[in-house]
Amino acid sequence: MLERLFKLSENNTDARTEIVSGLITFFSMSYILVVNPAVLSATGIPLDRVFTATIIAILVGTLIMAFGANYPIVIAPGMGMNSYFATLAATTGYSYKTLLATCFLGAIIFVVLSATRFRESLIDSIPSNLKYGISAAIGLFIAFLGLKNSAIIVANEHTILSLGDLKNPVTYMTIFGIFVILILLALEVKGAIFIGMAVTALVCYFTGLLKIEKIFGIPHMDLSLLYNPATESMNVIQLGLYGIVFTFLMVTLFDTTGTMLAVATQAGLVKNGKLLRAKEALLADSLATLTASLFGSTPTSAYIESSSGVANGGRTGLTALSTTFFVVISIFFFPLASSLASVPSITSPALIIIGSFMMESIAKIDWSDITEAFPAFVTIIGIPLTGSINDGIAFGFIFYVILKLSKRQWKDIHPLMYIFAILFVIQLLWLHI
Q1: Which residues contact 182 (CB under 8 A, 6 or more apart)?
Q2: Membrane topology for this entry (predicted)?
Q3: Region label for 293, one of left (φ > 0), alpha (ψ between -120 and 50) or beta (otherwise)
Q4: Element (H, E) at 166
């Protein structure tokens, strides 16, 4: 049945590899089950409602991704968007229900764009060198998150960034985890990343870094809609909050498209510059975003942590399905999942190493043509340095159009590139998060 559903042999994988890859992805992204409720509950949304919305959004998006697109990619509420939402709630005075309605309206547009050929056309319109740049940039971004979360790299007022305190237990346990995984990879041990994470977790537990006070526990879950979407949408229109709707739409559109391209490229799902089964994959995250907005969470995104499962050999929707299984199981082990997610030393080594894997696409960029090379370069440095996939892609689009026009190479520019370059300028100058 699994072979028929997910075409395992055709994708050079097997059920064991896919299930272990799903577990690795779960451990890499499980922090969102704790962090998203913590961030959004500060806006007034009940904690249990955010937790419910987070679970439902993951299940809706990832199950469509698994069965519809047969992709090893997980969909979950995106970090960054929840912080923006919290900032809006704190500074504008609008209720969380009205702000969720802005997410809802943006999600409806998002679903329409995904259900048509528009988003596929958008992906096809992105030049190959920019696609390679996006993949490498997200690799750097993933690695930087691992370095930052583990305090290997810390803020410095004089040099911006500097090396952290290597005597910090979180830091040296992360370095330990990196060495364990790298040695296992060098020895070509199957499931090296998962084994490395498990070994690191055990050492963290016995050294006192990982504290497990409770294993079992089920948080309260309310499955009703959080607000009346029609009423609150009218409030959004009456208040003229179109800029917020546009910002949510643009960031969601390019965050998830960029991540999906990067992880799909890593998994070999991009052929001749085209994303295989694109429509189903793109519908998965747009429908998850719509669901999240109704139950009490900010927009979803294809998760960059999916690359951890792909790096272990996950190639099909069985990896994504396995992750959703572990997400459901985690509801009954919520205290344990919270404990594991709270220790960066367990997940950071995987993120850093996976980031190095994704740098492979840099070799494919045409560095001899400045009109191709610089947009890719500014994307590569833009995403990790701004901490935003959307902003990095924005810089790449804008520079690509300007440089091609300066050489009168308008035939190289897809019409959609003009449109989004202009929209990105508007967003960066007037509607930036």
Answers
A1: 353
A2: Multi-pass membrane protein
A3: alpha
A4: none
- Give me the pLDDT at residue 432, please: 61
Q: Is 31 left (phi over 0), alpha (psi -120 to 50) or beta?
A: alpha
Identify whether the C-beta of residue 348 lies closer than 8 Å to the C-beta of residue 147: yes
> In whole angstroms, what is the distance from residue 242 CA to residue 191 CA?
47
Q: Are 384 and 288 in contact (CB under 8 A)?
A: no
- Sorted by sequence, the CB contacts under 8 Å of residue 140 that are 6+ apart come out as 355, 359, 380, 383, 384
Residues 329-344, mean pLDDT to the nearest whole number: 78
Q: How far apart are CA 254 and CA 293, in angstroms?
A: 18
**32: which 2 tokens?**
């969102």
Helix, strand or coil for residue 417?
Answer: helix
At residue 358, the pLDDT reads: 79
Chain segment 101-120, per-residue pLDDT in tens: 999 999 999 999 888 888 78
pLDDT value at residue 230? 92
* Helices within 31-168 (DSSP H only): 32-41, 47-64, 81-92, 96-115, 118-125, 128-149
What average pLDDT does range 208-231 have in this prediction?
A: 85
Distance CA 412, CA 127 (A): 9
Residue 33 · residue 40 · CB < 8 Å:
no
Give the strand pairing for 274-275 and 270-271.
Answer: antiparallel
Estimate the share of the chain in helix, then strand, then coil, as percent rounded to the nearest 5.
70, 5, 25
Q: How many other β-carbons are positioned within 10 Å of the β-carbon of residue 75?
A: 35
More confident residue, 4 or 341: 4
Q: Which helix (H) or strand (E) holds 369?
A: none
161-209 pLDDT, tens digit per residue, is 999 999 999 999 999 999 999 999 899 887 688 788 889 999 999 999 9
CB atoms within 10 A of CB 423: 17
For 40-70, the pLDDT digits (tens) are 888 999 888 988 899 999 999 999 999 999 9
**CB-CB contact of 87 with 70 (8 Å):** no
Q: Cα–Cα distance between 225 and 231 in angstroms, integer? A: 13
